[in-house]
Amino acid sequence: MLEKRNPIPVGEAVRRVMEFAFEAKKEVVPLTKAHGRFLAEDIAADIDVPAFDRSPYDGFAIRSIDSKGASRDNPVIFKVVGEIGAGYVFEGTVGKQEAVRIMTGAPIPKGCDAVVMLELTQEFEENGQSFMSIKRPFEAGTNISYRGEEVRKGEALIEKGEFINPGVIALLATFGVSDVPVFRKPVVGVIATGSELVEPGEALQPGKIRNSNAYMMMAQVERAGGTAMYLGKLKDDLEECIDAVLKAMQEVDLLITTGGVSVGDFDNVPAIYEAIGAKVLFNKVAMRPGSVTTVAVKDEKLLFGLSGNPSACYVGFELFVRPILRKAFGSKRPHLKRAQAILGADFPKPNPFTRFVRGTAFHENGTLKAIPSGFDKSSAVSSLAKANAFIVLPRGSRGYEKGMQVDVLLLDDQEGSEWPWDDIVKSYKL
Ligand SMILES: Nc1nc2c(c(=O)[nH]1)N[C@H]1C(S)=C(S)[C@@H](COP(=O)(O)OP(=O)(O)OC[C@H]3O[C@@H](n4cnc5c(N)ncnc54)[C@H](O)[C@@H]3O)O[C@H]1N2
Ligand code: MOO
Ligand SMILES: [Mg+2]
Hints:
Blueprint: H1 10-18, E1 26-30, E2 43-44, E3 59-62, E4 76-84, E5 98-102, E6 114-117, E7 121-126, E8 129-134, E9 156-158, H2 166-174, E10 179-183, E11 187-193, E12 197-198, E13 209-210, H3 213-224, E14 227-234, H4 238-251, E15 254-258, H5 269-276, E16 279-282, E17 287-288, E18 294-298, E19 301-306, H6 310-328, E20 337-343, E21 354-364, E22 367-372, E23 389-393, E24 405-410, H7 422-426
Parallel strand pairs: 4-5, 11-14, 11-15, 12-13, 15-19, 17-21, 20-22
Antiparallel strand pairs: 1-10, 2-9, 3-5, 3-6, 4-8, 7-8, 16-18, 18-19, 20-24, 21-22, 21-23, 23-24
Helix pairs in contact: 1-6, 3-6, 4-5
Bound molecules: ligand LQZAQKY5, molybdate ion (MOO) and magnesium ion.
Ligand LQZAQKY5 is lined by residues 192, 194, 196-197, 209, 211-214, 258-264, 267, 289, 291-292, 307-310, 312, 378-379.
């Protein structure tokens, strides 16, 4: 007999999955390999930055007191007693009416408390000795970048869980973190099920289609920060599938399958879960596409049974798998970033379930707008290419009109949200 499935709200489904969140192990990678990874430890400043008082300009370091009384009619003359470029230290102490030619980034010589920009000085030579003169006084502290003015030793810099972007790389380099503690990438097994599938390099036959989901999901795994392990495509043969899933479970941190989760005669995923003794967390979600998304757990490992329909598979991954990966990286904001946008086109289809329309979000005159990115069936693949957001349309008996305010979930963002589901769930009633 056909099993009865009870749809649960999206937020509730995500919550059930997140109960099995885990933190990934740590590893250390060289700084040159850290971009795009997630920091596994808090990093604090081990030095002041700048580490010494330094000059922000090319010019002359002087004792400000010596510039007192300088004016256009009464220029004050300094004897140039040395020159230092960045990377060198002036060894002596600068005395009365003396100046040191200094370059940007060089440490302020002992005795000096101001730097005069080169453009405000006049240089001349007398009997082989260099001099310079200035036509105005300079206060103590003029043009000095003080030690620790940017960052103080001991200050917290970057938190565990932070995405390592090029700016973070610069910070790590500044503080000498040449070996970076990062979270290991969980290994996500990817299996496509379906006797109709041929691989992208193979010729199509009548009734067959290309396996797009496996490749799409592998890219989604990588975008979320994990390592995808492709375990191949399987025919809709129960025994073969059970063996493959059991074997896969030994090799991966979590497993995603696509296809075979609905109620068709060859939809084997529910039977596979039963056969291997996996506990089903839910098998119907009040969302579209992806209502048949099924998630189970065996030995604390999550098995994601995503729909075979490409758009449904894509949405299921981003809503349920992505936050598990981000949580593994210590993120406090593991879910897709939620933002408000103005609907840029009518969406007349009413829906009994919350709909996640694949959309393109873009700024126009300072306002975030979102329009559907193409053909909007669960089976659609073409609308995925231009999708950088899901337009979230809560269930209702009427469609939505251009100009309405909607929530969007952003796909290409690293910031994420802590929990985007609260008021989305509120608008849904079972
Ligand atoms: N009587 C019912 N029929 C269906 C229901 C239902 O509730 N009652 N749910 C529909 C919904 S909603 C969806 S979504 C699909 C889910 O299907 P399955 O997850 O069981 O997936 P399959 O049957 O294996 O395939 C569905 C569709 O997707 C294509 N597919 C499968 N794998 C891939 C792949 N790797 N790459 C590209 N395309 C793939 C497959 O050929 C089918 O066309 O069920 C509805 N039916
Ligand atoms: O699971 Mo289906 O995608 O709701 O159309
Ligand atoms: Mg099916």
